[in-house]
Amino acid sequence: MPNTSSAKKALRGSLKKKAFNLITKSKIKNALRDFRKAITTSPSEYQITLSKAFSALDKAVKTNFIPRGRADRKKARLAAQAAKANIVEVESTEKIDTTPVVSKAKKTTIASKVTKKKPATKAKNTTKKAV
Prior knowledge:
Strand content: under 5%
Distance between the termini: 76 Å
Number of strands: 0
CATH architecture of the domain at 5-95: Up-down Bundle
CATH topology of the domain at 5-95: Methane Monooxygenase Hydroxylase, Chain G, domain 1
Oligomer: single chain
Helix content: 55-70%
CATH class of the domain at 5-95: Mainly Alpha
Number of helices: 4
Shape: flat
Structural class: mainly alpha
Largest sheet: none
Radius of gyration: 30 Å
């Protein structure tokens, strides 16, 4: 137990922070759990849970609960899981067209790539004279 009045105030503050941090931690865990569940059960409807997970991570960074790098790493890994689940679904439901695609871009000539050089200009004397 704290003895001084400032220690008592610090204890009250730390208890409030602890409660807030537990809420934030549970929001992140729930969002990640819901996303992973949505990926396994219905990969086509993962976007809602992905945005909730991103939002929970961004709010945690905003309140200095977790560092920016950790949130970015978690978001990158979630996005990779989502992309992987989306690719698996597309390949299983649609037939992929494997015909080669021919580019219709215009061919440029060497003469059009050469740029004209501007004539050199004389440098102005910018030094000031002493008065």
